[in-house]
Amino acid sequence: MNKIEHAHLKAGDQNLDLPLSTGTENEMGADISKLRSTTGLITFDPGYGNTGSCKSNITFIDGDKGILSYRGYPIEQLAEQSSFLETSWLLLNGELPNQSQLKEFTHQVTTHTMLHENFRGFLNSLPKSGHPMPMTAAMVSAFSAFYPEPESPRVLQETVIRLISKYPTLAAWAYKHSVGQPLIYPRNDLSYSENFLHMMFATPCEDYEVDPVIARVLDQLLILHADHEQNCSTSTVRLVGSSQANLFASISAGLSALWGPLHGGANQKVIEMLDAISEMGYTAQEFVDRAKDKKSQVRLMGFGHRVYKNFDPRAKVLKKACQDVVERLGISNRQLEIAMELEEIALNDEYFIERNLYPNVDFYSGVIYRSIGIPVNMFTVMFAMGRMSGWIAQWMEMRNDPDTRIGRPRQIYTGQTQRDWAPLDQR
Ligand code: CMC
Question: Does residue 426 belong to any structural domain of this protein?
């Protein structure tokens, strides 16, 4: 495509020059902020699929080329060489930390892991049968009642640390509550991922020896999920924050947005699909054939992506991580075998090739979580653990951007035109 030099809009007899914004990777946007005041028109873009809501220097995605980078660093390098806390610092501060910055950040995060003791009572007031996702959203929202509102930069910094350090504790506590087990307190001598595994799987009767290979894979999963630019939950965090709502309230709203099956819930669907294939005795080929048949309404879950049309770089990393976990645990995993067979067949099938359908991040993450014993209803809670630092980085960028205005989209009204109220006996 030729480089666009300017954009010009003709609406009736009005002409409008639309200033162009060009990003550092040369993606371009036409600024329509004066469109309504000059022409009376608004743009109509359901789902905002073609709308840039902000300028951001955090995450870059090129879906055609399968590129994802945080602050310019390719996701493959971060997943291979960085840790989740180092990547979180990068997202929050724009640069990789030096040794003393990383040490201090790690110290801060590992020493703020305890929850206020009243959270035990808070959790106990929720039914055990409840899903852990609304439990975590409610607890994060309740942080506003327990901790001061982040008004000064110093308190904001404490709030950021609190969210990143306490989220694994409340996630593990939500799980323990749902299975009726005693809550396990954090251990500050463990790394971020190790500590979470400890709180999930230790009991007062038996300690849990954390396997460093499993902890490393969990760290990789958190890195891969840490940010994905202006997706539904991140846009929610920014939109709520644009009203000057505090960080806890904004993150809680993001958690609720992430819970939807079209967003953070897809890896659960992959597991359900793999279970169904195995239980109903389908071969991988038979299931792929069903997914190609439009009448069946079946899709190959974990395949295809709205943005990535070549490959999902996160899925590449996870395929290897998945093999590492299964090898390490020495488990024969029928789900993984089915997943591999499905991938092999689909990647060589004309239907999937023509439509650019490749495995996405969810194709493998569910299999990994299940192999390490994370229950299916905790998958989205895990996704949120990784996304926490991205949400916070995006929220802070929004708050520091002088161009931020309260989010307030317009609409095309399609209801009744004005009419007069009538008394009951005349309706
Ligand atoms: N299995 C079979 N056919 C598919 C699939 C699939 N997984 N995905 C897309 N298609 C077909 C679809 O039927 C359509 O065919 P046709 O052109 O003949 O009508 C074509 O491919 C284009 O589909 P689309 O729905 O227009 O594509 P989209 O970009 O709007 O949808 C998607 C992307 C992710 C919603 C879709 O690929 C899908 O439903 N995948 C399965 C669910 C899934 O894995 N979701 C997780 C996404 S990753 C989450 C994240 O990054 O946070």
Answer: no
Sort 168 into a burial class: Cβ within 10 Å, 0-12 / 13-18 / 19+. Answer: buried
What would the pLDDT profile of 14-32 be if each residue is shown by its tens digit? 889 999 999 999 999 999 9
pLDDT tens digits for range 208-264:
999 999 999 999 999 999 999 999 999 999 999 999 999 999 999 999 999 987 888
pTM over cut 0.70:
yes
What's the 303 CA to ligand 1 centre distance in angstroms?
7
DSSP state of 131: -
Domain count, the chain: 2
Identified catalytic residue from 131, 263, 289, 401 = 263
| Total Cβ atoms within 10 A of residue 398 | 21
Residue 322 lies in domain: 73-403
Looking at ligand 1, which atom is closest to the CA of residue 291?
Answer: 2
Q: Does any domain span residue 418?
A: no
265: tokens are 């819930």
305 counts as catalytic = yes
Q: What is the pLDDT of residues 176-199, one digit of tens each?
A: 999 999 999 999 999 999 999 999
Are 122 and 61 in the same domain? no
Q: Is 222 left (phi over 0), alpha (psi -120 to 50) or beta?
A: alpha
> Among 225, 233, 306, which residue has the most ligand 1 atoms within 8 Å of its CB, making it the best to mutate?
306
Expressed in angstroms and rounded, the spacing between residue 358 Cα and the centre of ligand 1 is: 10
Question: Does some domain include residue 420?
Answer: no
